[in-house]
Amino acid sequence: MAVTVVLTVVSTLVFPVSLGQLGILGMLAGLAIAQTEVTRQIERQRRMLSQGPHITVTSVWLLPAALLVPPQLVAALGVIIYVYLAFRSWNGTRPGEAHRVAANATTMILSGFGAALAGHLANGHSVTTVVAGALGYFLVNTALTGLGLYLTDPAKATAESCLGTMDDNLIELATLCVGGLLVMVLSQEPLLSVLVILPLYVLQRSMLIKRLEELATTDQKTQLLNATTWQDGAQREISRAERENGSFGALMIDLDHFKRINDTYGHLAGDDVLKTVAAVVKQETRAHDLVGRFGGEEFVALLPSTSKEDAIVTAERIRQRISELVIPTQTNEGVAVAIENRTASIGVAAFPMDGTSIEEVMAAADAAVYAAKNSGRNKVVGSVTPTRELAAVA
C-alpha cells in the first residue's frame, strides 16, 4: 500500500489534470456505481459462494482510466470502486476484512499503473496502446495476486492456487477485452459507454450460474464429482457401452485405517489427506474418466473403453502413489505434522464381465475391496467374474 501512496503522490505532483480527464473519471465512476447497483445481489451471492479468490470486474473501469487519465485519478477511481463495493455489494467489511479490501484495491490500482506504463511505452496506434495496456494490467495483477496468495499460506501454495485456473484467467481476459472496447467508446462516443453494463451483468450472472453448477455436482472437500453426479455419469456410460458393445473398468478405492488419522491428528488433518489423495487419483486417471468421492474415505473411478487388466494397472499406480505420499498438515492444536505411510485397498471390476448395471459392477468392485482388506490391505484386487466362478464350480 505504501508503494501505491507514494506513486499516487508523485503522479499528483508531476501530471496535471484537465477538466476533460475529470469528466472521464466521473463517467467511469458513475458507470462503475451503476453496474454495482445492477449486479448487487449477484455479487453478494458470488462472494458468499466463493471458496478461492473472488474475481471482480473492476478491470473494466480501471483499464480505460489507466489509458485515458493520469495515474492519480486511476488511484482515486480504485478507491471509489472498492469503497462502494464494500458497503453496497459486500454488506460492509466484516471484522478483520478491512485489510483484505485495502489489499485488493491496492492490487487493482497498481495493476492500473502497470497498464498505464505499458500503454505509454507502446506509444503507437490506439489499438496497440490498448493491447499493451491490457497485457500490462493482466501481468501485474496476476503477479501481485499470486504473490499475495502464496504469502498467505506458502505450505499449501500451488501454481493453480496462486495463478488461478484457466477459467479464472479467461474471465479476467474477457473483462479486459470489454475494458479495451470501452476505451475506444469513451474516445469516440462517450454516451454509448452505458451499453457496457448489460454485457457485464450477463458475465457476472454466468459466473454465478457456473459456481452454482459446481456446488451441485462437486464434492467441496475434494473437488471431485459428488456421489450423485458420478452415478448419473456412470449410468450414461453404461448406456454408451451397451450401444457400442463396449466395456469399461471401475475402481473402488478405500483408504486403510483412515479413522486413525482423524482420531490422532484431528478432522482437519483428515481433510488434508482426502484432498491430497483425491488429487493423486485425478492425476493418475485420464481427463474423460469419471472420478468421484463415494463417501467418507472411499473414492470411485470409472475408466471408459478400458479392460479389467488395464484398470488394474491404473489402480496399482494409484496405490503406489498413495503409499509414497508425505502430506504436510497440522493437528487441532496447530502443531505441524507430516502424515505418511498411508495405504489404500483398491477393488477393480469391469463392464460387462462383472455386471450389466452400474450397481452390479460397483458391488463387484466393493467385494474386491473387502477381499483386499481381508488379505492384508494395501493391495489391488480384481473381482472374480461370475463366469469364472461357474467354471471353477464345474
From TrEMBL:
Q: Where is the GGDEF domain?
A: 246-385
Sequence intervals crossing the membrane: 6-34, 55-85, 105-123, 130-150, 170-203
Q: Which Pfam families match?
A: GGDEF (PF00990)
Q: Sorted alphabetically, which keywords does the UniProt record give?
A: Membrane, Transmembrane, Transmembrane helix
Please indicate which superkingdom the organism of origin belongs to: Bacteria
CDD domains per the record?
A: GGDEF (cd01949)
- Keyword Transmembrane attached: yes
Under the heading PANTHER family, the entry gives: DIGUANYLATE CYCLASE DGCM-RELATED, REGULATORY COMPONENTS OF SENSORY TRANSDUCTION SYSTEM
Stated name of the protein: GGDEF domain-containing protein
